[in-house]
Amino acid sequence: MTPIDPPGSGENSIGVRDRAAHWHPHTDPRRHEQMGPIAIARGDGVHVEDMAGRRYIEGMAGLWCASLGFSEKRLIEAAQRQAMALPFYHTANHRSSSPVVELAETLLAMAPRPMGKVLFVTTGSEGIDTMVKMAWAYHRGRGKPGKRKIISRNRAYHGATVMGASLSGIPAMQSTFGLPLPGVIHATCPHHWREGRPGESEAAFTARLAAEIEAIIAREGADTVAAIIAEPVFAGGGVIVPPAGYFEAVQAVLRRHDVLLLADEIVTGFGRTGNWWGSQTVGAVPDILVSAKALSSAYFPIAAVMATEAVYQSVAEASAEAGVFAHGFTFSGHPVGAAVALEAIRIYQERDILAHVRRVSAHLFAGLNALRGHPLVAEVRGIGLMAAVELMADPDARTPFPPALKFGRIVEQTALRHGLIVRAIGDAIAFAPPLIITEAEIDQMLARFAAALDEAMAQARPLPA
Ligand SMILES: Cc1ncc(COP(=O)(O)O)c(C=O)c1O
């Protein structure tokens, strides 16, 4: 394990202090005790720089989020202006502020389908919990309080709260904590390459998966199923784009059984797939959707939950009994977050970020597809500016690496030495660079990746049989 520690081994070095005091999320604690942090000091454009002065292309925009890169002054100035005027106020108990109202109006005008209202939260996971509670209250308001179960999909990532982790289809999110909660059911991931049967066409695969969801609803009882939750394109599960027609087929089932579609647009919202919304890219028509991350280009934690007028009206009815919609957070509708999000959206529109993403996406995939002949590359997949390269010991025979080798992690670490931050998801290497990335920067990113891949391959050879 290579320690990545800034210079200075004295007890005041950031690495030593971090190891002593700081408990990291989504990090192997024992590994961290040995290798310490990568402490980032500054950023500019698509680059970040660590405290030792090493520069990296941030091929993941942080956590799929810093879509305008790491030095967008307009966002910083928007935050400053709003903080000078009103640094905090809340939105509980009828309170409001002007940037929050303007952001709600802006989001409703941009929504992928007509929506009724927007509720603000701080993080993606809070937004996921909010959508589930809205779905429960929606059915309750319509006299169907028994409709509570939520269908999710294997490999989904929906966050780290108790419900977010339960909905996630990633065993590591659950095993330590005795999750998932009861009432969560996982269906097959719509990844044709991995889950398709020999000779099965994408259309047949899609029909089989829609039938599976209908069978789950029949087995559980339609009067017990509230909703299905779905990322339009899977992110943390390995960048998986469903086959064409998947959402149309699934939504036909949902309509038959009065089951809502909750769209997790936390990664896919605001241009990541080449449209404003991933739902537009994959033909989904959500009843409730949550966006976060690129909503503020990650410069301020803010997430937005949008629901149809029908959902809002029914939840309002259901809330009459308690006399309040008893949900929300201290930082719901933070005015600084709203001001930053408004400025981010202005920038996306002024710079026509969608046209840019589509243009450079073609360049990214041309470069990634050129790697298909590489002896370890089994699949290249993705859309817009989210992509993954699946690595295998023998791609032709579909032989994976031995899990203990953690080959993806070796590539991730090697890439750091080549000045590139990517993310290993198992043995798939994910890319989700800032949306502002240029074609020349994509070329650099891919050159560094190819060099890292070859170096990691040399390290891992001879591969265990
Ligand atoms: C698709 C998706 N859903 C939910 C979440 C959870 O968001 P947060 O980490 O802001 O709680 C994430 C975070 O990466 C995500 O990628």
Question: How would you portray this structure in words?
Answer:
By secondary structure, this protein is α/β, with parallel strands linked by helices. It has two domains: 142 residues, Alpha-Beta Complex (Aspartate Aminotransferase, domain 1); 277 residues, Aspartate Aminotransferase, domain 2 (3-Layer(aba) Sandwich). It is built from 16 helices and 15 strands. The strands form three sheets. It has a seven-stranded mixed sheet, sandwiched between helices. A hairpin with a 4-residue loop joins strand 2 and strand 3. The protein is globular, with a radius of gyration of 22 Å. The two termini are 23 Å apart. The structure holds pyridoxal-5'-phosphate. Pyridoxal-5'-phosphate (PLP) binds next to helix 3 and helix 6. The site of pyridoxal-5'-phosphate has 16 residues, from helix 3 and helix 6.
Question: What labels describe this entry?
Answer:
465 residues, alpha/beta, Aspartate Aminotransferase, domain 1, Aspartate Aminotransferase, domain 2, four-stranded mixed sheet, 15 strands, binds pyridoxal-5'-phosphate
Task: Write a brief caption for the model.
The protein is α/β, with parallel strands linked by helices.
| Strand line-up across the major sheet | 4-10-9-8-7-5-6
The amount of helix comes to 25-40%
Could you give a short account of the major beta sheet? 7 strands, mixed
CATH topology of the largest domain: Aspartate Aminotransferase, domain 2
